[in-house]
Structures are given as C-alpha cells and as structure tokens.
Write a structure and sequence with these properties.
2 domains, Fic-like fold, 485 residues, 6-stranded antiparallel sheet, alpha+beta, two-stranded parallel ribbon, single chain
C-alpha cells in the first residue's frame, strides 16, 4: 500500500510568484474598459452573467460526481433557467427533485459570491463556513471509513471543519493524506494571512486565486464539499478583480484541471495558473461579442450614437486611436519578423524544386483592406465572434509551391468583438490549382482558434505569445500539407 502525503505546511514559493500570466494580461486592459460600458448599458450582459452562474452551478455537481445531466439538457437549463419541466426521465441519474435541490444550492452559493463582492467583505473563516453551509444544504452524508477501513456513509457536519480524517484512495491503491483535523484551524488561519499579504503586495489576482485554490485543496478542511467551496473562493478573488467565476467543465476535469493540480502538488504551478487564465479568456472573448446597445427605443439609440460621435472628436479619443494604429502596426511587424525568420530557415532545408514566398498587406495600406474579406467573415462565423469590418486589418500569405502544387497559408490580423481595442490573429489554408484542367482555389479547414489580444496599451510583452501562436499555425499547416503529399 502506497501513502502519498499531499499536505505540507502551506507557504507561497518563488515558483508561484514567477508564474506567467500573459495569456490573460494581454487581453485584460480592453476587457476592463469594455466591462464598464456593458455594465452601464447592456441587458444582454446581465443575461450573460446569469448564464455563467447557471453553468457554474450545473458543472460543479457533475465534476464532483454528485449527479450527471445530459449535455443538451445542460445547455437548455443554462439558457432558460432551472425549470423542472425541462428535465425528462433519463436526462439525469438521480431523482429530479434531488437534482434541482443541488442545483439551487450551487446557484445560491455563486449568487452569494457576487453579493459579497458588492459588499467588499474580507475573506474570513466565518465566510468560508457560510459557503460550506450553502453548498451542502441538501447533502446529509459524506463518504468515510469505519475502524475496519470499509467505506461507509457518515453524517456531514456543515459549516464546521472536519473532525476525522478524509484521506481518499486512488484507483491504483495510493492513499492521499490531507491535513489532519487537529492542524486544520491553524492552517486555514495561515491561508487567510498569506492571502491578505499577497493582496497587499499586488500579486497578480490570477496567481492569488490559483494559489488559494491549491493550498485549500491540500488542507481539505471539510469532511466533504471542499472542491465546491474552493472554486467559489477562487471565483470570489477573480470577480473582485473584474473577472469571472472559475467553472471547471466536465470535459476538462481530468485532462486539464486534475493534471494541473497534481503538477502544483510538486511545486510546478504554471499549468494551474494557465488553466485559470484559459477559463477567464474564454469568458472574456464571449463577453466582448455582446452588444452594448440593445434597447428598442429610437430616442435612446440616437442619443447613444450622438455621444459616441462627439467622443470621437475629442483630443483624448484622437490619441487613443493613434495608439491603436501604432500597436496594430507593431503586431503586424512581430508577425512579419517571425514568418520571414521561418522562411529563411526552411529554404535552407529544401532544394530548388520547392519555393517559398511571403506576401502581405499592412494595416495602414488602404488599397488592400478588401483582401481576404470573405475568408475572415467565414473564419469569424466558425469561431462564433463578431468581426468588425470597419476597422483596419492586415494579412500575410505564406506560400509553398512544389511539383505543380501551390498552397497558401493566409494569416489575418483583424478586429474581434465590439471593442475597438481587441484584435484576433486567425489562419486558414488554401490550395491553388495551377495545373491544366485543375479546379481553382480550395479552402482547407484548419482547426486553429484565433489568438485574441488587447492593443489598448503596450504590446511588446505580447510578442512571445504571438510567436507561439504563429508557430502553432505553421505546425498545423505543414502537417496538413505533408499529409496530402
């Protein structure tokens, strides 16, 4: 029998401090500005937050294996609300009333988190106890073991720390040792103390949320419900900083969430911080496609339009637009530098029978703004976002020609969503028929999501992730061409 002691006296190490948060940082400035506008004007944004809360409530119980719900029914409940008649026999694996009791408990808990943010209450043990009581309101028992080591059901103590060990056994027989009950109180005091210190030191809230989540899980202070409570605490930290709740989707639980936690167990926290960033960015990208104007009153929309036009005439707006123009050009130059470096490198590896070429259109070249217009529209539809066609865009075509075949990789840099300081870098591959009697252009799908960033402020820190995205694009492209040869 193998025993793995997961808990150690908690601390905040340099490995946590040095985590890369650029995936979220590179879009955050535009999101913060857009959030203020949406909160002030958009009913659609309110509906979006409601859907996020319901998704969190549903996925929480699925990840914790409290119940299961059909995926299609899940989406209906998220969009329509927790209505009992929307769930039929066979859509879930527990009685319907029990399901809705749990769903309402989880929804009340996430509502509580949003209310606490508004009240600006500090993180305390009393608050954590209240969260535990809310999330376990309709749960009477927890899994435990008797004196013979046999699994059994024990009464769940709500709103109080555990009084007996809760050390689970993995499928391979390994026993995981969490913090013993006699040390929980002191460790939770220490967690809150370190949390407050990190806030005072202005540590990135993404790192704080991930660290609190991991430290809490190693303590495992409650008999049951620890995962539910800690994701709410991590959500509180992020919502306080104008982000969104942490919702672990069922399909990500094992392949991303659990693996990231296990790496953090070994003092390698980057994967957990990155996963939290991915969750936030996913929600931000959806929110950036919410319209701020959704009123049906002609007077109201006319006034909004008038204010916007007046704003654009102001000197501040002119400086803002100058910054956007400069940063569009910088992003274009980063891409140009990477693609030309790759072209120079790959030309050495092939003989003269294979030729490579690069074409481009700069964001300030008004004569080429129509290039790749239809492809961008199609790409935006595929990835479910709004492409603002009125703002400047740029492109590259990376061509490979050999044995009568020609492939062109199109890379476009265009505006994403309804905020004018957010851009996307997208890609598609086209086969150009150049032989007699051969069909002309054919678009070959590439399953590559757009890389979305803010150009509201300094973009120099974003070059690294832009290069990584372009490397991924070229990797997928070359693999696709190789498979067709």
């Amino acid at each position: 029998m193998t025993v793995h002691r997961l808990w150690k006296h908690i601390s905040f190490s340099e490995n946590w401090q040095n985590c890369d948060t650029s995936l979220l940082d590179e879009i955050a400035p535009s999101w913060f500005a857009r959030r203020e506008i949406l909160q002030a004007n958009s009913k659609e944004y309110e509906d979006f937050i409601g859907r996020l809360k319901r998704r969190h409530a549903i996925e929480t119980g699925i990840v914790e294996r409290m119940y299961d719900i059909d995926k299609g029914v899940t989406e209906t409940l998220i969009n329509e609300g927790f209505i009992s008649s929307l769930v039929s026999h066979g859509d879930t694996n527990i009685p319907k009333q029990a399901l809705f009791n749990h769903l309402q408990d989880h929804l009340d808990a996430v509502d509580f988190i949003f209310d606490i943010v508004t009240e600006n209450r500090p993180l305390t043990k009393g608050f954590i106890f209240s969260l535990h009581q809310l999330t376990t309101r309709h749960q009477e028992f927890a899994e435990g073991r008797n004196q013979f080591g046999t699994k059994t059901q024990i009464p769940l103590i709500k709103g109080r720390f555990k009084q007996r060990e809760n050390n689970p056994t993995r499928e391979d027989g390994t026993i995981i040792l969490y913090c013993p009950p006699e040390h929980v109180d002191a460790e939770m005091d220490r967690l809150i103390e370190i949390y407050n210190e990190l806030c005072e030191q202005n540590i990135n809230p993404l790192i704080i949320a991930a660290w609190v989540h991991h430290a809490f899980t190693t303590i495992h202070p409650f008999q049951d419900g620890n995962g539910r409570v800690v994701r709410l605490i991590a959500s509180l930290i992020l919502i306080k900083n104008n982000f969104f709740p942490i919702t672990v989707l069922r399909e990500e639980a094992k392949i991303k969430y659990i693996q990231a936690l296990e790496e953090a167990d070994n003092n390698e926290p980057q994967k957990l911080v990155t996963y939290f960033a991915e969750i936030q960015k996913r929600n931000i990208e959806e929110a950036l496609n919410i319209k701020e104007v959704n009123t049906t009153s002609l007077n109201e929309v006319t006034n909004i339009l008038k204010k916007k036009i007046l704003k654009k005439k102001q000197e501040k707006q002119q400086q803002y637009e100058k910054t956007l123009a400069e940063n569009r050009l910088k992003v274009f130059e980063y891409c140009s530098k990477f693609l030309n470096e790759y072209k120079d490198k790959i030309e050495i590896e092939f003989d003269d029978s294979v030729s490579f070429y690069i074409g481009s259109g700069r964001p300030n070249d008004t004569t080429r703004q129509h290039y790749y217009y239809e492809q961008i529209v199609s790409y935006a539809r595929k990835h479910n976002y709004y492409f603002n066609r009125t703002l400047p865009k740029s492109y590259f075509k990376f061509g490979i020609e050999f044995e009568g075949k020609r492939y062109e990789l199109g890379i476009t840099i265009h505006h994403f969503g309804y905020d004018d300081s957010v851009i996307a870098i997208g890609a598609f591959l086209e086969y150009k028929g150049i032989l007699p009697n051969e069909d002309s252009d054919t678009t070959i799908p590439l399953d590559i999501k757009p890389h979305v960033i803010s150009i509201k402020d300094d973009v120099s820190t974003k070059e690294k992730n832009i290069r990584l995205h372009l490397e991924n694009i070229l990797t997928v492209t070359i693999a696709q061409i190789a498979s067709e040869v």
